Structures are given as C-alpha cells and as structure tokens.
Amino acid sequence: MNLSSIEPELQAFEESFGCRICIHAFNDLFFQGDSPMFRQKRQSHRKTYPDRCGKEQRSYCIRHCMDELNQRIANSPEEDILEVHCRNHCFELVAPVFREGRCVLVLFAGLLDKQDKEKNRLIARLLPVFAAGLEAKVRTMLSLKHGSRDAVIERVEEFIEEHYAEPISTADAAKKLCISVSRLCHILQSGGRGRFSEMLMAERIQHAKHLLEFSDMQIAEIANLCGFPVYEHFTRSFKKHVGVSPSAWRKKRESIE
To answer: Of 31, 96, 142, 224, which is most buried, counting CB atoms within 10 Å of its CB?
Structure first.
C-alpha cells in the first residue's frame, strides 16, 4: 500500500462487491497534508452518485447523511453496521470505526438494491472488518514511517521468529511492515543488523542447534523444520556459521553431557 493512496484497496472492495465506497474521515489519519489518501470525490455522495444524490437538495443530504447519521452512530457505538435509506430511494450500508471511544472513520457502501438480500448480507458482514482493517493498517504504516529505527528492527525480528521455517524474503518482510524494500534494507544496515538474509540465517541456525542438542530427530528432519528443504544446503550453511557439521556439533554436545 502506497502511503499517498489507499485507492487500490478501496477499488478492490468495489470490484468484488459491485458497489462504490464513500468516506467520512473525522481526523487527519487519512490525509497527507491537505490531500486525502483517496480520491477527493469519495468524501461527497453528490459527486459519487451525481445522477441520484447529486439531484437531491444539498441541505437534505447534509442533514440526513451527515448530521442525523452521526447522531445515530454516537447513540449506538456498539453497532458495527447501519442501514441508511433516503427519500430518493437510495440505500447504503455504513460501517463506523471507533478509536478510544470516538468515531474516526465511516465507510459507506452503495448504492445497493434492497432486494438483493444475499449480496447485502455479505457486504454487511465484511464492510466493518474492511473498514477497521483499513484504519488499523494506515495507522501502522504511519507509525512505522515516523517511528524509530529500533521499532522497525523489532518488527522484523518478530516476523523472522514467526516465519523462519518458511521460504521468506526481504520483500515479504517489507510487505508485512508496509514499507519499501530499499528502506527496510537501509534501516537494517544502519541499525547494525546487516542484511535480512543474514538475520534469517542466524535464526534458522539457532533453532537447528537447539533441535540437534535437545531432540533425537534425524538431521534431515531438523533441516526441513528450520527452513532448509535441501539437506546439502543445510549442512553447508551450518558448517559455514558454526564451524563444524551438524552431526559433529551434535556429537560434541552429547559428549559434554
């Protein structure tokens, strides 16, 4: 996700459900300076639906889709989905997002056909999850962008610890943290951690050493569990980093006992 735009996510939801998304944002989280992180017209029903809402009286739209709706949301913070009907026979599903007891974002999915109950039921289930996830992801992205180098490195370490047995890459970690590969590499290098591949290898070797010492599993099994599907790659890597082969290291640890 680009920090300057959340349009790809919004458009993907629209394409999946055949609707349009309007946004009411009540803090500066979704704005970069004076510009929103989405198409400007998403803030206006009248511009999004010029043939329907655009022909309605502006004063009615403001009262019905803003003032009255905001009051409904404030009175029912436990409701994660609301229905909005207007006198022009427009129908939308609305998902508010609360942060610390305050509504910070409202997503509108419309205009919907009230008779298409199955589609509406599906949107009603997923729109609140999408809205909350979008708000949380943008908040995380911004915290990483403005956060400390140590915080990013800590997130990388957590990612490696959780996925060291999988075929992960620098690009996978960058995607998880919502930052560019080049920025992640710079943070790791400037933080004295070297390359992502070196951090990953160190984690894998550490787990392999633990299993060699405290389990009776075959070395090939340990290799596979530690992210080395090719046995020869494991033995070469282990000897390069530890100084001896896996079997020699196991024998050495057994002799100590």
So the answer is: 96
